[in-house]
């Protein structure tokens, strides 16, 4: 390579290295959280102040089309064959999928988020939304065979596993002291907005 060619290539190489390092730095940044779990501290117009379970103060602007749903406890026996459920699971020492919680969708929410994906409730947890194909009662709880469009899974639900379902709710249920899970989006100015909040009924902490 001639000296002139080297002088031309060297700046291009430097630009490429800067671009690569920038992409790497962006990739290494932690993703913005997509939900906050906590307790409502205050409601001021469309501004929702939440104290997260980790102790952080989070302010959320509620969108005009915000959707609010209630969460209430039901019995393990309310999970039927054919129920469309969501469940957070963690791997057990024997490789089983142990349910941390189960939420039963009402019929008008069937198909919501169908599939299985990593979840942020606990380390190594996953969220699976699927239809119950079979339920087997054992000494240590129920084993559910659940099926979704891309696969199937066996889930062990112990008698201590919280089981809940969704019920109608609205903005009037968003009061100080209520336990919530708010889905949030970071805006260009650094603030957060929410268009969907799940609120526990009768003091319930939504378990998902």
UniProtKB/TrEMBL annotation:
Highest taxon listed in the record's lineage: Bacteria
Keywords: Signal
Protein's UniProt name: DUF5666 domain-containing protein
Signal peptide: 1-27
Keyword Signal: yes
Species assigned in the record: Bradyrhizobium ottawaense
């Amino acid at each position: 390579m001639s000296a002139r060619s080297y002088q031309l290539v060297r700046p291009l190489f430097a630009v490429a290295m800067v671009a690569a390092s920038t992409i790497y730095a962006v990739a290494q940044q932690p993703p913005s959280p997509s939900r906050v779990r906590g307790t409502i501290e205050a409601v001021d117009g469309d501004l929702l102040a939440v104290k997260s379970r980790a102790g952080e103060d989070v302010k959320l602007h509620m969108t005009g089309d915000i959707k609010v749903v209630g969460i209430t406890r039901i019995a393990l026996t309310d999970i039927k064959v054919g129920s469309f459920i969501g469940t957070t699971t963690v791997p057990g020492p024997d490789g089983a999928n142990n349910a941390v919680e189960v939420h039963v969708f009402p019929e008008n929410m069937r198909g919501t988020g169908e599939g299985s994906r990593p979840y942020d409730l606990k380390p190594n947890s996953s969220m699976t939304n699927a239809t119950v194909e079979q339920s087997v009662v054992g000494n240590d709880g129920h084993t559910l065979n659940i099926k979704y469009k891309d696969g199937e899974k066996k889930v062990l639900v112990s008698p201590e596993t919280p089981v809940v379902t969704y019920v109608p709710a609205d903005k009037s249920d968003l009061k100080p002291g209520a336990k919530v899970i708010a889905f949030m989006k970071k805006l260009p100015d650094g603030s957060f907005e929410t268009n969907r909040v799940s609120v526990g009924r009768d003091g319930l902490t939504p378990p998902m």
